Amino acid sequence: MARGKSPPITEAWRGFTFTRRALIVGGAQAAVGVALAARMAYISVVDNDRYVLESESNRVNLTLVPPRRGWIVDRNGKALANNRVSLRIDIIPDRLHNREIVLGQLRTLLQLDGDTMERINRDLKAASGFQPVAVAEDMSEAEYASILVRLPELPGIAPQRGFARNYPTGAAVGHLIGYVGAPNAEEYQKAKDPLYITPGYRIGKDGLEKYFQPMLKGKPGARRVEVTARGRVVRDLETQPDVQGKTVHLTIDADLQEYAARRMGRESGAIIVIDCLNGDILSFISMPSFDPNSFSDGISNNEYSWLRADDHQPLINKATRGLYPPGSTLKPMAAIAAVEHGVDPSERHTCIGGYRLGNRFFRCLGTHGSIDMPTAIMKSCNSYFYWLAHRLGYDAMAPTAKLLGLGEEFQLAGSNQRYGTIPDSAWKQSRYDQKWTASDSLNAVIGQGYVSVNPLQLAVMSARIASGRRLYPRLINRAFQNEPLPFSPEALAVARQGMDLVVNGAGTAVRSRLPLDGITMGGKTGTAQVRGLASGSRGQSGAWKYRDHGLFVCFAPVENPRYAASVVIEHGMGGSRAAAPIAKDIFTFLYDREKAMEALETFEAGWGGTIKERMERDYAAWKAGASSDPNPELPE
């Protein structure tokens, strides 16, 4: 049977076939279109808020504005710590394009070293989103301008005008005020405060800056800016200003503080000046010191290594952390204790150049002959006070020393104190499981042996003897009772009389009389042995670290004391030689600033300039001649 033929393909057949295919394709397209329309409707209506937020974040940058720290001012409102304008450059990671090119340009424009570039790259890896990464701080106007004019070429770079901590007198307030620094990781984990990872934000790290951190820190502001897709700022949208921290008022006299620090010259030690009316600390000096501005800006490895290498220990607060044998500055205290225990101050003792105890002979630095109590203070006769200590025992004297502030830890804002030792028989039994001996008493009465105190305690002792009250030292306006001391007027009068004779009679500090009409200073010198006489040296020569310390406690005016002070000069070879002349100039400054400044300018010319000038020169010399510690333990 023959096969049937396929029908011919006519124009009608072709039209039918095309129409069917068009319907199928068109239907599919319509279905897709409906789906897209439905999705767009969902996005427009249902998911609108989320996509608006994402769109907004793509063009708006919101950053915290670190608050300005509160000022720290002196008793007259003069700034001891304030703020200055600081120009800085940050990177916003999410806005950073062409990273290697941008970082290369920054390195060239700002002359960034390898360590800085390594730190920036490390911070960029750790950061995310809009969390800024610091590039440079405290820039000059020229450096800042070099970045501003190239911003279109530097996507993700954010210039900032902020504030940095400033200490107008530098090292003069280092150990008083302390310093600020960037928070570390541990501090951030503890606080969980986004400010702690904001470039330019600083917290108190030491001293009063740390103690008053809650008052000084302020409240942050916020800044919203419109940026292009490449991170260039187009305009400010809204700024919420920061709230500055509160002002802290101290009892310090800023002018006296600076003068006392400068007057220390190249010596190592401490100076404390106290107002005898209320216990206000007017000057709190530990020298040499560090410049807190260096820590605020981020101290370099080299500079920190230089400070650590100095054998005068500029990083140690000697005013409250330094412990020294008080030497003969303890003799007025011993006189008060003796009178309180019935010794007649007019009773005489014959000094033969020392005092014999059994088969030992305790030496005196002179042969003073027959002397009474005020004269013994004036001449600083060891033999007389050996005689008293052997007669009464030191257990009778130690309570008086403690009532005068020795061995006491004070409620002092921001201080970290070592309070030393005022020994007695119970202390030795507890500490060494040994009995107290008569020899221990003889050593203790002249401020040697087990006795150790800090300079603040010595100043308090002087203020309490001068005022007759249990004054408490204070750096802020804090109320203390300051009740009368339980000593007879006669006992206090004998101590004051002896201290008057030390300076204004024929005593050991006669060359430190005040060059003022009608104003006299009373005081007591002290020489604290660093090594015993058996070492073959009397501490007046040889290597600096083996020389005796020089101490001086004082008050003025003698007739109606207003100010009291202590001066401790490490390895100064004696109080009359090193400490008393400084006290003389400090008290002169309190009453005649012009005269005191004339003396200071002469001294500084011989020392090689001001504190800042000497520090800069010494650091440059050290840096040129020393290899830096590659891994110094920088403070956090």
UniProtKB/TrEMBL annotation:
UniProt entry keywords in alphabetical sequence? Carboxypeptidase, Cell inner membrane, Cell membrane, Cell shape, Cell wall biogenesis/degradation, Hydrolase, Membrane, Peptidoglycan synthesis, Protease, Transmembrane, Transmembrane helix
- Topology class, membrane: Single-pass membrane protein
Query: What GO terms are given for molecular function?
Result: penicillin binding; peptidoglycan L,D-transpeptidase activity; serine-type D-Ala-D-Ala carboxypeptidase activity
Annotated GO biological process? cell wall organization; peptidoglycan biosynthetic process; proteolysis; regulation of cell shape
Q: Which residues form the Penicillin-binding protein dimerisation domain?
A: 65-236
Q: Has the keyword Cell membrane been applied to this entry? A: yes
Matches recorded under NCBIfam families: pbp2_mrdA
Q: What is this protein called?
A: Penicillin-binding protein 2
Q: Which organism is it from?
A: Sphingopyxis bauzanensis
Taxonomic lineage: Bacteria, Pseudomonadati, Pseudomonadota, Alphaproteobacteria, Sphingomonadales
